[in-house]
Amino acid sequence: MQLQLNPEAIKEQAEALKDAADYFELSMYNHKWNEEISNPEKLLLGDYISKYKVEKSGCTEEEYKKCSRLGTEYSSIVDFYDNKAEEIRREISFGYTRPNIPYDVNLTKAEAFQKYCECDEEIARKAYDLMRKVDTAATYHEKELRENYQGDLFAQLGRENERPEYEERARLQQERIKKASEDFMKAFNSPENQERLKKGAEAIKKYMEFVKQTADNYEKQESVQEVNELQKEPVVATLPNPDPATGFDPERTEALRPYANYINEVAEKYKELNGEESGPKL
After folding, report:
1. Which of 1, 119, 224, 243 is least enclosed, having the fewest CB within 10 Å?
2. Closest by alpha carbon to 163, among 26, 274, 63, 39?
3. 53 — pLDDT class (breaks 50, 70, 90)
């Protein structure tokens, strides 16, 4: 059988990969520049680019916010219902439910768009496409600003009269960051938190003991199997027996539960102190 290649398709794919790599490199250079400019200039650049995106979209500020939300939901909903929902439904049928499932797995993708976006998939996709175009245009515009930067973004943008305002905002921002850090360390070193850390260490220790016991059982079973193979007698497995369709193992889940509870408790405490999520929970 002779393999048929399409030179034009290969060329298009190669060009798409090169464009993606170039865009990623450009974004990294922009990010590096953003880290190097002063804090007042960072705030100015953020406000300037945000306003540029709204103008580039052709929307009002409220419309832009709605499109931005729809664009984010679009990619998330498509990924969830195309790649994850069926697996989660299968897990639920075997009695296991993941924590923090973002969408209702009992809905179809079309129903999910109506519930979470209040529109159909096509409208959400158009919002997603618009946001991609706007973000791309903003990235290249920031590149122009970076390449023309002479050490003073306020002068470059003709916003010298706003410098005191942004310097004050930067100062207040640093004070908030400093206070949040101090509050976090105070809470971290508190007797209550030290007790939580102790419980967390104990949970980790118990889980590691479970892992070690499982490994020991496996080694013992292998030894017994070798002997029984010589004696031609059947061996009864003593290890946990995960479901082959899902890999769900009740014993492992129970061993993990104290550790997961500890991680989630720490994440909730972080949110209380800082007003933002610490990252994914277990």
Report:
1. 1
2. 39
3. very high
CA distances from 118 to 73, 122, 213 (A): 11, 12, 51
Mean pLDDT of 252-257: 62
The domain spans of the chain are 21-151, 191-274
In sequence order, what are the residues at sequence separation of 6 or more whose Cβ sits closer than 8 angstroms to the Cβ of residue 146? 29, 30, 33
Q: How many helices (DSSP H) and strands (DSSP E) are in the chain?
A: 10, 0
At residue 20 the predicted structure's pLDDT band, cuts being 50, 70 and 90, is: confident
The pTM for the full model equals: 0.64
C-alpha 222/C-alpha 217 separation (Å) is: 9
Instruction: Output the six-digit token pair for 249.
Output: 């193992």
User: To which residue do tokens 């100015």 refer?
Assistant: 44
Alpha-carbon dihedral angle through residues 78, 80, 86, 90, given to the nearest 10 degrees: -170
Spell out a b/e string for 93-116, using b for 16 or more CB atoms within 10 Å of the CB, else e. eeebeeeeeebebebeeeebbeeb
* Type of residue numbered 224: V
pLDDT at 271 > cutoff 50: yes
Whether residue 238 is predicted with pLDDT greater than 50 in this model: the reply is no
